[in-house]
């Protein structure tokens, strides 16, 4: 390790939502003179408007701070911000891989909560140094001693004298945090004279500069004139600019092992650079890349269609978001009812909501979102290989199906003891099977095996509601399992609307079908004639309601004859009904019950 590396610390802050992570990041930047008082604003690292609106970090950020200790020695503190919602676990692990230690922040008014435990487990799995910190000690409702006990229960390697007590809002005790970062978090170890090996842990797209990647250098050094190779796709590029965030982009001529910074690649293809890729020098590459991140698998799929805007505008917006959000996947699709759009893959419903809001806020796009669904494996007659169905429209006809399998997840929920009964009732109501029950500190960790389709819609929100915000959820794929699933088609005026097709367990179809048609008859725009709304399963209508006409016929002579009705139905290839977003929201609400 060089003398230069000995003065570098790479760290992240992890915490439950609203425990003060962004506030502590603000104080650290202020107390290291990274930002002046004039530049200071609340939640400085949360620069997306959706982040400030929801009070949760969505995109990870990094910023270089300079800390001068009491001996006059200047240290380089690279703070890598992490997201704070269950849907963004991938972003958390990605950020942690670029660090050497973490600050585990706990709110003294709330104690150790579920996301605290989940993030602690991620940091522990990554073998990172963990510095426990109790925040908001000056709050009237603070229970500092109780919170310390909970932290000691969480990890028996913690010692009471090592737990820091601070108020991030007022700055009380934050100087001790800066000293602890210096003393406890190890300096990066890397060979500065070796071949370049750098990890891409985040990226964003600039319309003028192209792809900008955030990197952590593990070995070697990088100069602003170098040609680099992105190893995953074998893409070569000459560096246009590089440097660090402090917190604004500050150009530098050299980055060396241990540094965290950015590279302006000039690559204009938004999907060319993979997050988790290894960068090396084009003329002197390393033989093997760094252990990359696993490609994240979407849990939820939904259609995104332009409403009141052009398809090409939506295409541009989605491509840019796809670069900034590695977990968001998409491909073009066409709907008879809605025209050209995209099929998007998301980590969960909150992730879908964030993408929709970002398209609105950043690109001014009003997007219509269809019913979310998961991936199904369908075995059909006379076919050796099963079909993988991501779009309910592609679900085979019931007469051709041999069996349907759906993906099951291991849902790990961390929660307080007293809430166990409510959470078990919730999970078993969603076709969950109990797999494991363990104690972690003062919390329980319950593991259920559940279908993705039951988790995807709003299980997390239900979990939060049942646990009053104290529970958290992390999921991992388990296996495909046979289920009695059927396709529900919604027909409006005898024409099936492809955008309203979805797949669900047979045990729910009668209840949901009745609720959907009764909702839709009030939401679908009226026409001069009455229009039936039907829920159709396996060729038969299981429920029906009529959308009333704009006005009643004034005399019997104006009524539509049976023959005219029949002709209209036969000649109708597709529905020309304009569907408001409220229709899709109603179906989403039905499935969340």
From TrEMBL:
Its EC number is 3.6.5.n1. InterPro entries: EF-4, EFG_III/V, EFG_V-like, EFTu-like_2, LepA_C_sf, LepA_CTD, LepA_IV, P-loop_NTPase. It comes from the Bacteria. CDD domains: EF4_II, LepA, lepA_C. It is an enzyme of class 3 (hydrolase). Residues 6-189 form the Tr-type G domain. SMART domains: EFG_C. Keywords: Cell membrane, GTP-binding, Hydrolase, Membrane, Nucleotide-binding, Protein biosynthesis. One of its GO terms (biological process) is positive regulation of translation. Pfam families: EFG_C, GTP_EFTU, GTP_EFTU_D2, LepA_C. One of its GO terms (cellular component) is plasma membrane. GO terms for molecular function: GTP binding; GTPase activity; ribosome binding; translation elongation factor activity. This is Elongation factor 4. The gene is lepA_2.
């Amino acid at each position: 390790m060089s003398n230069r590396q000995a003065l570098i610390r790479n760290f992240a802050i992890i915490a439950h939502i609203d425990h003060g992570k962004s506030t502590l990041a603000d104080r650290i930047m202020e107390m290291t003179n990274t930002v002046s008082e004039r530049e200071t604003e609340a939640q400085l690292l949360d620069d997306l408007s959706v982040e400030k609106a929801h009070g949760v970090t969505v995109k990870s950020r990094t910023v270089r701070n300079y800390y001068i200790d009491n001996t006059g020695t200047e240290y380089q503190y690279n703070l890598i911000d992490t997201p704070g919602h269950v849907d963004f676990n991938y972003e958390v692990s990605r950020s942690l891989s670029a660090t050497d230690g973490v600050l585990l922040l706990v709110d003294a008014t709330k104690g150790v909560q579920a996301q605290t435990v989940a993030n602690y487990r991620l940091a522990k799995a990554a073998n990172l140094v963990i510095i426990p910190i109790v925040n908001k000690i000056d709050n009237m409702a603070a229970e500092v001693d109780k919170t310390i006990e909970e932290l000691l229960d969480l990890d028996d390697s913690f010692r009471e004298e090592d737990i820091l007590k601070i108020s991030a809002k007022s700055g009380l005790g934050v100087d001790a945090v800066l000293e602890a970062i210096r003393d406890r978090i190890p300096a990066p170890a890397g060979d500065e004279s070796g071949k370049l090996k750098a990890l891409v842990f985040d990226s964003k797209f600039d319309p003028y500069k192209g792809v900008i990647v955030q990197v952590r250098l593990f070995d070697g050094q990088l100069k602003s004139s170098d040609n680099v190779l992105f190893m995953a796709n074998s893409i070569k590029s000459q560096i246009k600019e590089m440097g660090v965030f402090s917190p604004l982009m500050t150009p530098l001529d050299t980055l060396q092992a241990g540094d965290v910074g950015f590279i302006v690649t000039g690559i204009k293809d938004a999907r060319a650079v993979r997050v988790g890729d290894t960068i090396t020098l084009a003329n002197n590459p390393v033989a093997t890349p760094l252990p990359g991140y696993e490609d994240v698998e979407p849990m939820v799929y939904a259609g995104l269609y332009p409403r009141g805007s052009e398809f090409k505008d939506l295409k541009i917006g989605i491509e840019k978001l796809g670069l900034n959000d590695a977990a968001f996947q998409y491909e073009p699709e066409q709907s008879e009812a809605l025209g050209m759009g995209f099929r998007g893959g998301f980590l969960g419903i909150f992730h879908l909501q964030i993408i929709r809001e970002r398209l609105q806020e950043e690109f001014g796009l009003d997007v219509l979102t269809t019913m979310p669904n998961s991936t199904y494996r369908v075995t059909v007659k006379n076919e050796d290989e099963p079909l993988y169905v991501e779009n309910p429209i592609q679900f085979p006809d019931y007469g051709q199906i041999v069996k349907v399998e759906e993906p099951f997840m291991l849902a790990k929920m961390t929660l307080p003891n007293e809430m166990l009964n409510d959470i078990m009732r919730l999970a078993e109501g969603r076709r969950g099977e109990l797999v494991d029950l363990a104690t972690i500190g003062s919390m329980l960790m319950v593991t259920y095996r559940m279908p993705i389709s039951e988790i995807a819609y709003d299980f997390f929100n239900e979990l939060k509601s049942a646990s009053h915000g104290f529970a958290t959820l992390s999921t991992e794929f388990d296996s495909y399992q046979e289920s009695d699933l059927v396709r529900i088609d919604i027909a409006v005026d005898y024409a099936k609307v492809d955008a309203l097709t979805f797949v669900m367990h047979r045990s729910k179809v009668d209840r949901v079908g009745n609720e959907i048609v009764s909702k839709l008859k009030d939401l679908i725009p009226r026409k001069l004639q009455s229009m039936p709304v039907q829920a159709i399963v396996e060729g038969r209508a299981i429920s029906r309601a009529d959308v009333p006409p704009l006005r009643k016929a004034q005399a019997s002579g104006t009524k539509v004859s049976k023959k005219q009705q029949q002709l209209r139905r036969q000649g109708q290839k597709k529905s020309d009904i304009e569907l408001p977003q409220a229709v899709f929201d109603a179906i989403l609400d039905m499935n969340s019950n």
